[in-house]
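Lab manual, section 2.4: Encoding a predicted structure.

Procedure: take the sequence of the chain (426 residues), apply the prediction step described in section 2.3, and record the output as structure tokens. A sample record is shown.
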Amino acid sequence: MMLFPPKNVLASLIAQARWFTAVAVMVGSSITVSAQTGTNREIADNAKTKQSHDATLIEALESRLEKLESGQREIREGIARLESKLEGYSSDTTGQSLVTIRIRSQSGKPLSGFEVTLKSDFNDGPLAQATGTSDGSGVAIRRSMPYGTYDIQLRSNGWAAYIADRVLEVGQAKEWNITAPDPDQFSDMVLQSKLRAEAFSELPFGVIRESRGGGAWSEEYTPEPDAEESSQSYPRLGHGISEIASTLNVEATRTFEQTDGSELEWDWRFDRSGQSSSKRLWFTAEGVALLEQFEVDTVDFGEQSEFFSDLQRDESVELYIVDQIDDVKQPRTIRVPTGKVQIQVDKIFGRVDEPLRRAIKEHATGSGKSHEGQRWLTANLQSESGWIDRVFSRSGWEPAKNAFLILSRDETVSAGETCRVVLASP
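Recorded output:
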């Protein structure tokens, strides 16, 4: 960003230019004085030599004087330009500029309901932030902001995007038109659960965390079906676990060309499409519900406990505390963007039964022992775990490439049509 000198500096530059002019005049005068020095005899004796020398000196000094005068003109012209620009910025005494952020569809239709946050980079310019929601004309933010570099965060109905390094200069109004997904381009997806509790009867529940110090930890995978000895103290369905569930999420990604020729990637997730940022699709043996709110905690079991009796000193068990699950529906219909979407199975849950709940209260040392709400343990399966084919039917599903997921599948959702997805046990 170009900064302009104050007027006292400009006055100094002008004074220097005048000094250059005075020096040039003095140099010219010295030529005349030099030509008149010496005695008449010396001038007569050396007339030819000094005439040639003086001519050369005069020519060199005249050339230098011409350069000084040229430099003086350039300085004056530069000062005039600086003063002109300074006058142009004099009306902005706050160092701020008007910013307008407008949201529109690919067809140019104004889009309302987009939450926009404009936040400055603390490394470049004053700290500043503005938020707004786009109205019927698509305008989300229209206000004066300090100069600097800004990032833009955008969200609406599950969609999110991020734009970095937008520069705002002093006195120069900016209008950023952002092309976004059309909220009207959604269709129905019908979800159905055909999970059978019996398929999960042998699955060990409980993910063990090992502390690594400094708040970091590692998680162990669930013991495989042939590792019975190492999983004897894990709860199972009918012994510590009373029911099972699995969570799903739905995602989509779209790329839109912007008015400046750049491309902006938008991603959509079902778990942020409502009021709760932690919402999950909750598949059970009875149907599909919505998991609205949960917390994650850890508990330590003592040596006297029937469960997890072989935990080491730096190990604990991951515990999910579920506060709100809405009514189960079979099937359940949700709204998803048209086009390609990805469905992901991310976790398997087992609800703690009453005996294990009492054991947690009696032996556990984590804060989860006193928290109200349902308590659930999880299973942490590897992508090629032998448990996957025992508990899930792979019809239409593939092993997830992400290490934190279990299964995934892609579906193409057409406008006005219904897409159906089933999660089943063998």
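Check your result against the sample. Residues 1-14, 23-38, 86-93 have pLDDT under 50 and may be disordered.
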